[in-house]
Amino acid sequence: MPVDLRIMFSELKKDVVIEEIQRRVASGEDVLSIIGECKEGLQEIGERFARGESYISELILSGKLFKETLDILAPYMKAQAKESKPIGKFLIATLKGDIHDLGKSIIAAQLKAHGFEVYDLGVDIDPKVVLEKIKEINPDFVGFSSLLTPNINVMKEAADLFIAEGVRDKFKLLIGGGITSPASQKLVGADFQTVDAMAGVHYCLKVLGRE
């Protein structure tokens, strides 16, 4: 009996999703179409969360499942023809002094599901490392996530560094996490602030004229 991968993913039926993915790649199905169905399921969970119809735990689990899906399919993606062109580049990091990964991982997964190429530098990252990556990849968006109040000052340090190096006007800067606010957005000089991952995704899509 055919399995609707989108529905199974949106219902977080991990075992069914993994088994179906393995069956499809073994039969030679296009990897990008498989990823596309999983993305639709991931997006559905994100939209449900944005409407207050699901819990943060589901959002976390969906991000982990999507990552596991990509890990399984990665070897097949390399073997197949070129991938579709991403709609934009997003560079994300948790800056030095903070090792929290949750919010960053959630928005990274949702951005990937919506067609972005995401560069995740990890946690406890020095602003100079972010600067070097900006110069290397020329991203459309740069995002910082944190759960520690002192990290706002590090975000400002990073933004000031970008200005000094003449790159700040080349991308949109987003900040997020429970400790961010409109006041911290103003302090940092960010283009957008949110405590909601999906709001950040929709902002990026609007900037690119995708919605």
From TrEMBL:
GO molecular function, one term: metal ion binding
Domain of life: Bacteria
InterPro entries, per database record: Cbl-bd_cap, Cobalamin-bd, Cobalamin-bd_sf, Met_Synthase/Corrinoid, Meth_synthase_dom
Coiled-coil stretches: none
Domain B12-binding: from-to ranges: 87-211
B12-binding N-terminal domain mapped to chain residues: 1-85
GO cellular component, one term: cytosol
Name of the protein this chain belongs to: Putative cobalamin binding protein
Species: Desulfosporosinus orientis (strain ATCC 19365 / DSM 765 / NCIMB 8382 / VKM B-1628 / Singapore I)
